[in-house]
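Help!! Second protein's tokens look totally different from the first
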Amino acid sequence: MRFNARLAGLGCCLLVLLTTCSAPIPRREDAAISGFTAASTQVISPTPLPTVIPQPDATPSLSDSAKPPLASVMVPVSTPSPELAIRAVRMDSYLRSLTEQGFFSGSVLVAYRGSLLVNQGYGMANREESIPAAAETRYRLASVTKTITAFAVLRLVAEDKVDLDASICSYVRACPATWQAITVWHLLHQSSGIANFTDFADFPSYEQTPSTPEQLVARFRNLPLGFTPGTVYHYTNSNYLLLGLIIEAASGQPYADYLRDEIFLPLGMLNSGVDPGDFSPLNGTRGYLGAALDIPLDVSNLFAAGNAYATIGDLYLLARAFEAGALLPADLAAAMVEPKPGRYAMGWVVQQRDGQRVIYHPGSMSGAATWFGRYPDAELTIIVLSNLTNANAIAIADALAGLALN
């Protein structure tokens, strides 16, 4: 309580010293599923407001000794220093300003060197039912799902159930001859040459109705490859759709069940799972484009490329488990964040920004804009989950990183 009072006082004093600037995000009329583009970051000088920084609740883990116990990967969250408290106030003010201007709604977590600086919601998760966004709000993850899918595949690799160098035809039924040269490694690194089915002209005609993975694969199975596998980076949802089928073939479980048993439950990610397509697990969260509801995309049309949901707190558990080496053997963990070709690793984008290495994945689709990543050398984790399609999650994450790193 004493810390919160000091924090409030700092915020009030700084009100007269700082101003807010933010840029409107261009309106996007059509659903965007597959792509992401790095956005430039403006210099942010936000107006601070007093804020309470809640600490995460302890989360139970499974007793199964074969799973990584949560206690082994969690470290205590420390109280921010006075300097970090000022940075936290600036971040909160920046996010409040974006929300007030209609450029953001969602939930944000920022953790820096063991201190949780931001962990809360902004705006509304459901405007029609007046459900506010909160730290516990569940969101569709869009392409951040790919990071989780990659973790699942690599856990199967660690168990010798999947071979990264094997042809995908070892796992995929009705595999065409043109796919024989494509390996699991190629799918993970987005270098298979397979066309992106969500870019097809007919995708809008079925994106709001359920599809099975097999129906989706049939839409691109017989198309020619765009290039020799392994020679070019080409981001496509088709690759991670196929990885979901490989997970099922190698594990003998449905994709959703394998994620639950191997990742979500062992790590205490009790608010994470796979959306069957109809928003039903999201506790009311809905997606918006500007002032209106966005297209109610049925995410069964994305499968393992974009159908997961989670909270900011659950993704933080995942980040900390990966950092602690609880999810993968050291060699696979290192390989997962080694980009080749291009800047795409296995379910992560890896870049240098302002002299800092950043490992992240963004997501963008109807009703969702997301960013999940870490600056490992700076010990900085940022998670942005928005239910506003035209929220610029990449630029927001960049701005928060600048404020955190001062």
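Here's the second one for comparison:
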Amino acid sequence: MATRPLLPALLAACLAAPGAARAGELYSYVDPDGVIHITNAPSDPRYHRVRRASAEAGLYRPAGAGARALPPAGSPGPYALHVRLAAAKYRLPEALLLAVMAVESNFDPRALSEKGAMGLMQLMPETAREMYVADAWDPAQNIDGGARYLRLLANQYAGDMVKTLAAYNAGPEAVRRAPAGVPDIPETRDYVSKVVALYRAYRAGR
């Protein structure tokens, strides 16, 4: 089956309401629960224009005094080769795999969620089976399975990274039911925001 390259992040659907904004600009704020909201069409006075921090800082932060920084990109450590191979195999940006892995497990191959998600890419048992992963605790298999699933989702959503990430977190059915493509689930909205922020940081080489 032919695959399509994953398109750059499409943030218009991510936590946004209709409104005018300059092309290419992003706005964000952190709510009292620590959830990071990102949009290109701000409709809330709490949004601030996002600017790049210095290259040394290696992260994105809202413009303005006292703003809280987005989390810095972590290191894949010994899993960089597995990420590189999976990214090439499934035609995905390495930066995307790294960002998903950082948010899912913080690069812990033994991570186990309360719901039973396993390993670096936090694969559920059923997803692991569907992605032909025999041992979800094996880093190479886990990364390959997570990348394969991301590719299938990216194909399903025509390369829309926001919907792809939302489906990875909440499932395709939840995305199908959501009018804007991102389920109104705080965990999922927070997840998409964090992964997109880290993706941009990794993509910038930081």
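Reply: Different proteins will give different token patterns, so don't panic. Confidence is low (pLDDT under 50) at residues 1-24, 51-71.
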